[in-house]
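Task 17 of the worksheet. Students: predict the tertiary structure of the chain below and write it out as structure tokens. Keep your answer in the requested format; marks are given for formatting as well as content.
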Amino acid sequence: MNNESKAYMLGGGIGSLAAAAFMIRDGGFSGANIFVLEVKPLLGGSMDGIGNPVDGYSMRGGRMVTTDNYECTWDLYKSIPSLNSPHKTVFDETMEFNEQHKSNCMARLVDRRRGKVPVSSMGFSMQDRQELLKLSQTEEKELAASRITDWLSPEFFETEFWYMWSTTFAFQPWHSAVEFKRYLHRFMLEFSRIETLAGVKRTIYNQYDSLICPLQSWLVSQGVNFVLDSKVLDLDHRTEENKFVVTSIHYQQHGDRKTIEVNSNDFVFLQNGSMTDASSLGSMTSAPPKLIKQDCTSWNLWEKLAMNNPGFGNPSVFNSSIAESLWESFTVTLSTPTFFNKMLEFSGNQAGTGGLVTFKDSNWLMSIVLANQPHFNNQPANVQVFWGYALFPDRVGDFVPKPMSDCNGEEILRELCGHLRFDLDVVASANCIPCRMPYITSMFMPRSHSDRPLPIPHSSKNLAFISQFVEIPDDVVFTVEYSVRAAQMVVYEFLKIDRQIPPVTPHDKSLLVQFEALVKAFK
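Model answer:
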């Protein structure tokens, strides 16, 4: 690298923003030489949070974080100043917030009788324990592209453990056995406290306001260039010493086609694929439009690159079955405290301490979570916001005779109130915005080892991949940590930075953690 090197981030999600920060902080890279191209008018990628009290708030996702894992994420945010307290870092303020708001869910599962299900026992039979142990100890090479259902009997998917684990992490029975095994190991510490979610930490606001905004602000102060409303169309390249070398970037901005020439000492970072591509919003009176592959903006470029480069992965494994990767979320904005008061009375949890409440017998497998308020930094004191999602939006509801995918916000609220046995006037002031996400769990699709590229493929000289669709041994997708870790790995390798990347904490190797998990499995 020299002072004339430039870096081009194709995609404005957390991975690209983290890569830019690591280049500046640890690589001495000039922010003025970093360019972030993003197809949308704002940054953050899948970590979004938008809206206002009049039109309603909306978040596509509701993420859990932990301080026992997320090593690279917190390594980054120990350097990023808080927007709320300038003399503190984002890490400092998040830790202080969680000291004051500890998770202790008292209504983790609710049955069809509106009863809080006892969850001190995982509900395993001896066969369940044996099969789960076998899966967790089988080598990934043997698991290959198999599904969870290939290793566990049908009865397993009716256990309290499955309802809690699957809704906490959004697993479906047909998802990858490899990814399920990785989660069992990576979050073994959570196994013994999955019913209370005691290990879960929250940011002060939603993750866009709490993580994306301060990071973006810091990058702006460092002179990073943001090129918004820009769709990357193609990359020109040449082969040099059997290595793939990007030579130019073609993109479209406001209808105009533009080209960036990439020099031999420049770097290109591509966010290949997206779990929130083709997502769509509905309203209180309309269901979200059912967008499909043709409506996507992120997959085409990866498909072009992978077509003639086997080391660049196989995107079709992840984006070819919407029915297997779809679920739907919803965000509810309230102007009266009635619903929150009723939930406190029902669950025993103040908002921000309970985590997910899952209606285990619901056809949609619906869950909701009430975060500490305010959940948005521009949210008035008299407004409350909560989030929910359902893993089976293709099924007909219990109280609304249609699939969730066909429901508007009013119908989703009616279904929710049916499960809670709340009168509809409890949500009379509510604005529910549903969000359909056809590829939200696409990274969990069964895959072979070669279907995901390495962050820097062996056949690439200046192109790197940063996303949920790269291969990082031992870590787990569908986490902020995965994107940040990929970014740190790429930057350190490209810039030859002599600093250790925080390793994945081997909680699963701890005898105490193993013992506690064993005890839990036999309760």
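Marker's comment: The mean pLDDT is 96. The first helix runs from residue 14 to 27.
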